[in-house]
Amino acid sequence: MIKDNQVHLNRAHVVADGLIVAGSYVASYFIKFELFSNRLPGGHLPMGIYFRALYFLVPAYLILYYMVQLYTPRRALRMWDEFMDVVKANVAGILGFWVILFLLKHNDFSRSMMIIFAVLNVTLATAFRIVLRKFLRYIRKKGYNLKHVLLVGYSRAAEGYISRILDNPQWGYEIAGVLDDFVPLGTNYHGVKVVGKIEQLGLYLENNNYDEITITLPLDDYDRLEELVAQCEKSGVHTKFIPDYSSLFPSNPYTEDVQGMPVINIRYVPLTNSFNKVAKRLVDIVGSLFAIIIFSPLMLAAAIAVKVTSKGPIIYKQERIGLNGVPFKMYKFRTMKVQTEAEEKKGWTTKGDPRVTRIGAILRKTSIDEMPQFFNIFIGQMSLVGPRPERPQFVEKFKEQIPRYMVKHQVRPGLTGWAQINGYRGDTSIRKRIDYDIYYIENWTMAFDFKIMLGTIRYGFVNKNAY
């Protein structure tokens, strides 16, 4: 029944997208030539020529949507990622259409109308998907369109999967239980119980109508994997495998094909790509220079306030660890009383720290104290976005205590970062901060950087954890 429902849903999805493409195109024609046109005769090509393009445009766009996997069932896909898939397909569609017009020498075909079409199509396609998500969320709460899942093997991977499923009921997964040979029957993890032994898998498959079997064996039990997969596939039930050592892999594994043998890179860093590095560096140069110019009056006022309210230098230079573990001097407006080297190494600033001056507290709370780092960015020691750099003594400490800590030094440190806009700033969990940093490093895109910068403007300047 689930499979039939999914087929019907996909067909409806395709039909709706086709109607949206056609409707957006027709609307863009009337916006361009009726709403904003001077309506002089002979001012544009006949309507029939424009509308004949729909015979090719609609199927082409549906193919593009298929290519970016908009019709592949991905219940856990975030709305932002789906929106970006719609944008990618539409950008490809417009560029392809323009190339075809150029090759056919249709120079009179309105390019501005096609831009209007693209904006309308992205807007309506996204709105449709938002409404569809809300509808699916509603019917799943009512018990429809659910996928019933049985887990095979109790492990860290099983616990992680259960937690994510329970945190996201809108995905429509319902976990029936776990089979395991070593954990006692009835063991409960957030309401999901161990219901039997792995050797009983065949019996459970025969007596129940599962939509998915998810194999989550512990690391020391992988010798049974091939047998279990064969058993699941024989029953015709869709089977997934979540490796118990997934913490070793990036969230988007980078694989290579070595003469037919798949090789998974333990860590994939998009910014090791030369083109990505150059593109990010250009954005850093332009962005930091723009920020220096725009914020210069504010920085001048901050400098005067620091100078007249406490003794000591205006700019505080502190050694931090940067790209490839190389130390550099990071600039900040001084927000503390002048201290000895031993006092500086006391630790992080905490709430009510007596070392912080009155003006310093304001500068820290509003993040104005960080603005001199625009100069660090301009000269290439830092980036606008990236993991925050740490002091040498803490790097030495954390690299021994926190797995994967040193991965953060594979990219330039940032003025702001994914961890910071998610609240992990100042005296907060360093482990959580590193998790966010590594996610950013492994999933970097230019769009992700802009998303973080916008998030910083919205959430990051005034922060409750900035003491």
From TrEMBL:
<feature type="transmembrane region" description="Helical">
    <location>
        <begin position="51"/>
        <end position="68"/>
    </location>
</feature>
<dbReference type="Pfam" id="PF13727">
    <property type="entry name" value="CoA_binding_3"/>
</dbReference>
<dbReference type="InterPro" id="IPR017475">
    <property type="entry name" value="EPS_sugar_tfrase"/>
</dbReference>
<protein>
    <submittedName>
        <fullName>Undecaprenyl-phosphate glucose phosphotransferase</fullName>
    </submittedName>
</protein>
<dbReference type="GO" id="GO:0016020">
    <property type="term" value="C:membrane"/>
</dbReference>
<feature type="transmembrane region" description="Helical">
    <location>
        <begin position="12"/>
        <end position="31"/>
    </location>
</feature>
<dbReference type="InterPro" id="IPR017473">
    <property type="entry name" value="Undecaprenyl-P_gluc_Ptfrase"/>
</dbReference>
<dbReference type="GO" id="GO:0016780">
    <property type="term" value="F:phosphotransferase activity, for other substituted phosphate groups"/>
</dbReference>
<feature type="transmembrane region" description="Helical">
    <location>
        <begin position="89"/>
        <end position="106"/>
    </location>
</feature>
<keyword id="KW-0472">Membrane</keyword>
<dbReference type="Pfam" id="PF02397">
    <property type="entry name" value="Bac_transf"/>
</dbReference>
<keyword id="KW-1133">Transmembrane helix</keyword>
<dbReference type="InterPro" id="IPR003362">
    <property type="entry name" value="Bact_transf"/>
</dbReference>
<feature type="transmembrane region" description="Helical">
    <location>
        <begin position="282"/>
        <end position="306"/>
    </location>
</feature>
<feature type="domain" description="Bacterial sugar transferase">
    <location>
        <begin position="280"/>
        <end position="459"/>
    </location>
</feature>
<keyword id="KW-0808">Transferase</keyword>
<keyword id="KW-0812">Transmembrane</keyword>
<feature type="transmembrane region" description="Helical">
    <location>
        <begin position="112"/>
        <end position="132"/>
    </location>
</feature>
<comment type="similarity">
    <text>Belongs to the bacterial sugar transferase family.</text>
</comment>
